[in-house]
Design brief:
alpha/beta; Rossmann fold; pyruvate-formate lyase- activating enzyme; ten-stranded mixed β-sheet; three-stranded parallel β-sheet; 24 helices; 25 strands
């Protein structure tokens, strides 16, 4: 991994003399109060402005402020004309454009493409405050307002659309958002390093067209730079390199001389005698100056198999330690992706969270409720990243698989700030977590192995032997947090990797005894190996093992606590029979899902490539021999899968009954204990063998970061983005 400039080591920009703003200004009046005549950087965001480290615009804004820049916020602007984009005047350096903490399309539409009426990131939960494809719309208005101002894209929306990508809402492959937005540079992943470097270079007078080599960025080029080795990966089913035929009459030394190879002393396999071997020449390619050419946009747009191939190549180039640059042709321009950003060190991420956040919404929202803030105002983000690699989730593609953990002191300091400064605090920390609850301080045992590794997951198909699974640092953090004066309870609400948790019974006991508020959410996602393998999730046996430990320690603590399992309907590779078996499992365990989640194809996720192409990019792609997958695209099938998750709902019985009869599974219809649904003339209340069931809700928000933040508020919708 190449050396990087420490995040807070840059010489500060001259405007640091203005000091720290109580809130980053959102109007000219606020700028006047700060004594500013202009902003150096203006961040445009689709979210309401909450000055809190869980909100990307606040993280990036405060970071740039710490570098000495004057940063303004244009929050939830009217995108229908350019006027609102001129409210702070012309920025001296650039516009930073973000959709917000959530993808604007996932934020607005359900999995069935119905328009939502609410928006948790808007005041009073008001929907319709941001446009579809917000990054594109905002960029166009910025360009109309000030044609010569550079535009820098960020947020989860831009990050997951950095190359040609399948778009679920239009059911087509769209161009890189960098092309459609007509922006100058795109930052992907956690963008603190990239945004600091971009701002520093532009402040020194460098033209934005020359800012092309920063890790974690994508830029447009007309031509490829000189001195780079181009690796062609534009096709599948192509033959490998054909070696030159050697003259059998040449000596070993002559063979080596004629091909650039060499001679080496070895031993004959049969006799064991020392012999001279010919070793063919193998050209060494420097990864740092190698670029992989992906299939062009016009190719992946019309060829789903090539799309799956491009997705596979991209996902294999996500480790900052060994990833190579990627390039993809879009009509007359090249979209160039530099390797992923180098993760922040513990000291750096501590400094980010120590920035002077007000930790509350901007005063202009006084009296209005912002649900996303309400969800996280008493929670603490302890780490970033995820090495789970679940194919339906995009955390790894966005935040990376290397865990970036804060120090224990930094986390304790934030808890104390919540206790002392946050209005309405009652003594309960609602969550100590992040993308996952229990990956804190977990990492590869060897930095050399980690830098060379190309696995997509450290825990699938099993936990890697090189992964440190020691939960003691997390246990110590929990104990220290709950011992703080004024802290009554510390809850864990982030998603738990139960396959890791079962490796540490002490952790499970600590969690169950002290940190569960009656219910613990957990996500087995399915019960059958077919869909679980496509999700890269552990088998249901691991969940049942964790469940047994949960019940054991709950009983030992003398408490009444329950697991709430989450499941996904209609994931690629899931058959109707898989869903029937899942429904039967739910019935045996007396679970009734009140609300369920249908699979939602988010841009750039591996499962989205499965959904679009019908191929499995977890394996080598081939037109003839590649593994084919049945994506659940038909609306009727998606409804059936969802209905089977709610097998207990009378409204779903006709649909389920029709399927079971057609599929030859009529034995599951009736009033027997092993039946799934009653016969047509049987009332639900009289269904024999019916037992008391546990209701649970599978609605939960998996929210990702924007320009630089890794926080995930918990809430009502569970989205696979």
């Amino acid at each position: 991994m190449s050396a990087v400039t420490p995040l807070f080591s840059y010489t500060k920009y001259w405007a640091e003399c203005f000091g720290t703003a109580p809130f980053l200004p959102t109007s000219r009046e606020e700028m006047d109060q700060l004594g500013w005549d202009s902003c150096d950087v203006i961040i445009v965001t689709g979210d309401a402005y909450v000055d809190h480290p869980s909100f990307g615009m606040a993280v990036i804004g405060r970071l740039l402020e710490a570098q000495g820049f004057r940063v303004g916020i244009i929050d939830q602007p009217d995108w229908r004309n350019k006027q609102d984009f001129m409210r702070l005047g012309k920025p001296n350096l650039f516009f930073g454009v973000a959709a917000g903490n959530m993808d604007s399309m996932i934020n607005r539409y359900t999995a069935d493409k119905r328009v939502r009426s609410d928006d948790a990131y808007s005041p009073d939960d008001e929907g319709g405050k941001r446009p579809d494809r917000a990054v594109i719309a905002y960029s166009q208005r910025c360009r109309e307002a000030w044609k010569d101002v550079p535009i820098v894209l960020g947020s989860i929306e831009a990050s997951l659309r950095r190359i040609a990508h399948y778009d679920y809402w239009s059911d087509e492959v769209r161009r890189s958002i960098l092309v459609d937005a007509q922006a100058d540079i795109l930052l992907y992943g956690n963008a603190e390093r990239a945004i600091a470097e971009v701002a520093q270079r532009l402040s020194r007078g460098q033209d934005v067209t020359q800012v092309t080599d920063i890790r974690g960025t994508a830029v447009l080029r007309k031509d490829l730079p000189e001195g780079w080795t181009l690796i062609d990966s534009t096709r599948v089913d192509t033959p490998g390199k054909v070696d030159t035929l050697l003259n059998p009459y040449d000596s070993v030394e002559e063979q080596a001389a004629s091909t650039g190879g060499k001679c080496a002393v070895g031993r004959d396999e049969e006799s064991g005698e020392q012999v001279l071997h010919f070793v063919p020449y193998r050209e060494k390619v420097d990864r740092a100056t190698s670029v992989i050419r992906l299939p062009a946009y016009h190719k992946v747009k019309t060829d789903p198999v090539l799309y799956a191939h491009a997705s596979r190549v991209l996902h294999l180039e996500t480790n900052p330690g060994n990833a190579r640059a990627l390039v993809q042709r879009h009509e007359d321009v090249e979209v160039w992706l530099n390797p992923p950003p180098v993760p922040l060190s513990t000291d750096e991420i501590d400094e980010v969270f120590a920035l002077p956040f007000a930790r509350v919404p901007h005063p202009k929202y006084e009296g209005r409720r912002i649900p996303a803030y309400e969800m996280i105002r008493f929670s603490v983000n302890i780490m970033r990243g995820c090495f789970g690699g679940c194919t339906f989730c995009s955390i790894t593609e966005h935040e990376g698989r290397i865990i970036q953990s804060r120090s224990e002191d930094s986390i304790i300091d934030e808890i104390e700030k919540i206790r002392d400064l946050t209005p309405g605090f009652t003594g309960v920390i609602s969550d100590l977590g992040g993308p996952t609850a229990n990956m804190y301080r977990l990492a590869c045992k060897s930095t050399e192995i980690e830098s060379a590794c190309r696995r997509l997951s450290c825990v699938f198909p099993g936990i890697c032997g090189n992964l440190n699974t020691d939960h003691n640092p997390l246990i110590n953090l929990y104990r220290r947090a709950r011992d703080l004066p004024g802290i009554k309870k510390v809850l864990i609400a982030s998603g738990l990797r139960y396959d890791l948790a079962v490796e540490s019974p002490e952790y499970v006991e600590e969690l169950v005894t002290h940190h569960v508020g009656g219910y613990l959410k957990i996500a087995p996602e399915h019960t059958e190996d077919g869909p679980l393998n496509k999700m890269m999730k552990p088998g249901i046996g691991t969940y049942e093992r964790f469940s047994a430990m949960f019940e054991k320690y709950t009983k030992k603590a003398g408490k009444k606590q329950y697991l709430i399992p989450y499941f996904i309907a209609a994931h690629p590779g899931t058959t109707e029979n898989d869903m029937v078996e899942l429904a039967l499992w739910l019935k045996r365990h007396r679970f009734r899902a009140d609300q369920v989640q249908t699979y939602y194809p988010s841009p750039m996720a591996t499962a989205t490539a499965m959904y679009h192409s019908g191929r499995n990019p977890l394996r080598r792609i081939s037109y003839k021999r590649g593994e084919k997958i049945s994506p659940v695209r038909d609306l009727d099938k998606r409804r059936l899968h969802k209905a089977l998750l709610r097998y207990h709902d009378e409204a779903n019985w006709p649909l389920i009954r029709e399927y079971l009869q057609t599929a030859g599974r009529a034995e599951l219809i009736g009033d027997g204990e092993n039946c799934l649904i009653p016969a047509e003339d049987t009332q639900a209340s009289g269904h024999k063998g019916a037992k008391k069931t546990r209701h649970f809700s599978t609605q939960h928000v998996r929210r990702k970061s924007t320009l630089g933040n890794g926080r995930k508020p918990k809430g009502r919708r569970r989205l696979q983005s």
